[in-house]
Write a structure and sequence with these properties.
Layout: H1 2-36, E1 46-50, E2 53-56, H2 57-69, H3 74-97, H4 104-113, H5 117-120, E3 126-127, E4 130-131, H6 133-141, H7 146-171, H8 177-188, E5 190-198, H9 207-216, E6 226-235, H10 240-258, H11 263-270, E7 273-276, E8 288-290, E9 293-298, E10 301-305, H12 311-328, H13 332-338, E11 344-346, E12 366-371, E13 375-385, H14 392-420, H15 431-438, E14 444-445, H16 457-463, E15 471-476, E16 479-489, H17 493-526, E17 529-531
Antiparallel strand pairs: 1-2, 1-17, 3-4, 5-14, 5-16, 6-11, 6-13, 7-10, 8-9, 9-10, 12-13, 15-16
Helix pairs in contact: 2-3, 4-7, 8-17, 9-14, 12-13
Amino acid sequence: MVMRKLRTKMTVFLWFAMFVFVGFIFLSWGMQATRSRKLTPLERGIVGMVNGRPLSYRAYNNFVGHYREQGIEPFKCREFAFNTLIEEALLDDVFKERGLKLTDEKVIEIIKNSPPPEMLEDTLLQTNGKFDYQKYLAIISNPANIRWLRSYEAIIRSQVPRQLLYQEISSNVRPTTIDLIEGYMQGHLKLKLEYVLFEPDKFDASIEKIREYYDNHREEFKVSERPKLKYVRFPVIPTLRDEAFIKDEAQEIFERAKQGVSLDSLVIEYKCELSTIEKSVKGIHKPIKRDDGYHIIAMDKDLLLPIRPSDETVAGVEDRVRSFIEAAKSGFDEAVLAYELKVEEGYNIIEELNISFLNLKKSDKLIGPVEGQQCFYVLYTLGYQPAHIPDFSEVEEKVRDKYLNFLAKTKAQKLYQEVTRLPSVGQEGEKFRKLLSQKGWKVITTSLETLKDSKGEAFFLQASNIPEDDIGLAVTDKGYYLIHCLKRIEPSQEQIRTGIPDFQAQWMQEETQRLYTEWFNNLKASAKIEDYRYELH
């Protein structure tokens, strides 16, 4: 009897052992399969690469959170965060090459001797109205403040080498006397002009003329080899619930402003925008809804609370995008039909979307969700399109724009030749205005303006090369200008002599910033950058 019970228990035990053994085998196979499957960069915690150097996914998320705390839109936050990581990686290599990296000893020295500005102004750290270093040293020696110290250390390691690099660049900026005089005169020159603007989109042309232009300039439209893709958009639109929340928040801001809280403080707290208006108003006006959001106007300030989609709304759209991607794995076109989406085709550039760092070489791959401006994209790669001259139907709009631009330029040059043949185009006879008005062109006259007052820098700088009572041509993004200089007042020699010292500092700062921006853009353009944020499916 006892043995029978033991045999029964033994049978149960053996069956249990067999199940455990088989389970262990399947678990082992699963672990081996996982080890054999190559992990994606994101699974390895890598969001991108810069010259073979990995960019941390954790650091990326930290920057996204940092920008969101500043009130920046989620879509922009992600792009800002990725560009910040690229900048840090590129500059870190430069710091190493130039010996600008800080040692631990140097960082400690800076922390001890250079308190952050907000602490220098803190009255709690002052004795008899002066900053007390002993109180500061007590704070940085307290283990309870270790997190703040690490944060301050990170700022020092990031910013100090940048300052040293900037100083290196500025040390090579050496303006000549001619540079300073020309720069000062350009900024203080006053011009009164009359002009005609020839805008390409105001011209018209038949399809036959546009086609003829294409046939005569085919090589201008040749495209190099480039990746080709299809894509769909998923717009992220604020819901009625989102708008109701913003409306309530705007009312709350209004009530607090009435109680005496300054708009400057409320802007920081509610992460909104503040601008100055030309005409001051009395008191504080109730929230006004406009296309861009709710406005609260007080005195000469306008506080804007944009109507944006909530995190919940964004997450809902993103879930739909991921659901589409899963469906599209079995067929992109079929999923598009099922989700009732509009398919668009493109190449390596899609409007506002920055996809220059994505790997688009493999065909039949899904990439997404990719963040755009208030929308998500899903891309489907189609391989490479070889270099070729596209058919007219493919580039008709581009040909039309080029042809109309050609017409505007030709008309401006033709009228320039006619006006220069006039005996005088001076202000007295008004021959410039008369001739162009007779031909049906609208002549616009400006007031006496400086570069700072003018509406267009490119326009004014080109006009500044035209002598008084003379004419000239200028071109900007708007089109071609035929300009007559009515009056030109240059700063006096005394103004130049007394103004140059202050202007030199401004010139140095602007020129250094220009050189730094140009240098960094070249550094970035020559770098090998890869973006792994969007999974390939």
